Amino acid sequence: GENVEQHPSTLSVQEGDSAVIKCTYSDSASNYFPWYKQELGKRPQLIIDIRSNVGEKKDQRIAVTLNKTAKHFSLHITETQPEDSAVYFCAASIGNSGGSNYKLTFGKGTLLTVNP
Amino acid sequence: GAVVSQHPSRVICKSGTSVKIECRSLDFQATTMFWYRQFPKQSLMLMATSNEGSKATYEQGVEKDKFLINHASLTLSTLTVTSAHPEDSSFYICSAQYAGGYNEQFFGPGTRLTVL
């Protein structure tokens, strides 16, 4: 089955700096890669996702890049703010439009701390 | 849109009792629902996948007789933890997918189970 590795496990940055979290996956058939932000005791919130037909996607301060050849994808957060502090999870899934029942395999998470 | 609720949000029970957790999709029909367990400072671990009207598919190592899953309608799935023990204490989160939703999962707010 799919295996997702995530690094680093903890990341501390100064407010305004950039943060980068990297993930690798094992199954070359995976084609959907979401990123979630989870605050303590809360549900995971989808912050950005990318599909295998795209190499990069950006949404304001957040961007995700995907390298299918190397089977890795990364989350980039620019101009970090204290409210960005949370645990971030990457995930991978196999599937296509019109279908369902596609399970996600999660990375182990990265605890991001943004120091004011 | 795509709102998922869970009930209860917190439950404390005595060892040996059974606990039922409900997961509802409020504004869409969920053809597939997933149940996850998350221990403190760990990632989400998929327990089982359930499709409306059919038996759940359990992940390796998850006891199907202990974690009973029912997905009787397109908007409701239930997880029953039978004969709960302290080691079952965890954060249980459900998610839902709809057909044509292209892999995306919508997460419930989670249920904190504490077994005394």
Quaternary organization: heterodimer
Radius of gyration of chain B: 13 Å
- Spell the H/E element sequence of chain A: EEEEEEEEEEE
User: Separation of termini of chain B?
Assistant: 37 Å
Features:
heterodimer; A: 116 residues; 11 strands; globular; B: 116 residues; mainly beta
Question: Can you characterise this structure?
Answer:
The complex is a heterodimer of chains A (116) and B (116). With 116 residues, chain A is mainly β. Helix content of chain A is 0%, strand content 53%. In chain A, strands 2, 4, 5, 9, 10 and 11 form a six-stranded mixed β-sheet that branches. Chain A has a five-stranded antiparallel β-sheet with strand order 1-3-8-7-6, with no helix packed on it. The radius of gyration of chain A is 14 Å and the shape is globular. Chain B is mainly β and 116 residues long. Chain B is built from no helices and eleven strands. In chain B, the strands form two sheets. In chain B, strands 2, 4, 5, 6, 9, 10 and 11 form a seven-stranded mixed β-sheet that branches. Classes of the chains: A mainly beta (116), B mainly beta (116). Chains A and B meet through strand 5 and strand 10 of A and strand 5 and strand 9 of B.
